[in-house]
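CO-FOLDING WORKSHEET

Operator: S.A.
Ligand of interest: zinc ion
Run index: 461
Mode: holo prediction, single chain
Checklist:
[x] sequence pasted
[x] SMILES validated
[ ] output reviewed
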Amino acid sequence: MQTKQTAYRDTVPDRIANTASVTIPSMQRQSLARSLFKNTRVALNIQSSKMTTTIGPNGQSKPSALTFERHAKCSLARAHSPLPHGSVPLPIFMPVATQASLKGLTYDQLRDTGCMLCLNNTYHLGLKPGQEVLDSVGGAHKLQGWDRNLLTDSGGFQMVSLLKLATVTEEGVRFLSPHDGEPMLLTPEHSIGLQNSIGSDIIMQLDDVIATTSPDHARIKEAMERSVRWLDRCIDAHKYPERQNLFCIIQGGLDLELRKQCCEEMVVRDTPGIAIGGLSGGEDKQEFCKVVDTCTGLLPENKPRYVMGVGYPEDIVVAVALGADMFDCVWPTRTARFGQAILTSGTINLRHKSFEADFSPIEEGCTCTCCLPADKGGLGLTKAYMHHVTAKETVGAHLLTMHNVHFMLTLMGRVRQAILEDRYPAFIREFFSKIYQGDKSKYPEWAVGALKGVGMDLLED
Ligand SMILES: [Zn+2]
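OUTPUT RECEIVED:
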């Protein structure tokens, strides 16, 4: 995954965004691409608002339920505005609760980690419990007892993972239900209808997703163009734009020209937020960074940018520098079920015999319930205990999930704090130094190159 990379953009650091602004910034595109130094803490205020609009397929305006506030130093309090499902600070990592349940955590425990926004999956909830149950219970917040924000994937990503069962036409995606083998059709209208029934605060358009590693350029182009057409159908079908925020999804594989065309088309539709889709499909990280950088360079400053399916700490830290704001991935929770703990110094597998008699906490200084000493209100668990339970006891997976989710959300809190204090480059240097024990020769070249492209030398002392 880690490949060589040269600088692909030569920009001068631009500090313009670090000035305080509490209203939506001008749509005017800055002449320089958004760089590392332009990132600053912002909050997604998900609420009833007509401050931004979505342009429908016939040119009609639709209201939006999201405001985007850029936070500079001294305006921290704005990140805590009282809102229906809570203000969301950016950049953010969103844990994935695919089936309206975060595997390994109760919602109380998830709330305790400070999580303000997590994911549900439309495709899975549409199959079970199904739209009728969702409508009768009054949506997914009520179904799962989660009073904070929800984002739902459209189901498009499942096309990649279930492609053997699915066929894509202009109408939608036909597939066989994994529950009963019945043929099903997911159209943009159906996806939005389901997400309207789910009631998620952020909903995603149905997009035509092709693996970035696909060699079929014509199909990638078709998928990009179809995703734009499907966005129009989604905008048209969306019943509650005043309370649910529809995000478009930029497609185009690894072809930067296609990505640019897609950005231009979708920016015109003026959706409340914008996602960069189709990545994290096994492409090399240099290509990944080029796509993110190309897209963020073309997207308006006043919209959250969500890079879908990204979850390794290094990828997130670099993507934030490239101008991305939102991330999600099953990795931190899935890997916990295999005994992997995410630490500041990298990832360790607690099933390894070397931890059998290691009586130190999972991570020294971690404030999660597992690591926090008993005299400070935590469980004070040791690596030795975790080693003992991870292999065979379900509680091991639960505890480690708690630590890993806490780690990711704490990492994002530190990222935000560093941006707020205008010291993100120093944060990134410290972050990489800890992972590679200060050995710069081990730093991944893709990261060094991507950061160089936004005016930061990772190898500098
Ligand atoms: Zn911990």
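REVIEW:
Residues 1-41, 47-52, 72-83 have pLDDT under 50 and may be disordered.
The pocket of zinc ion is lined by residues 362-363, 366, 368, 370-371, 403, 406 (CB under 6 Å).
[x] output reviewed
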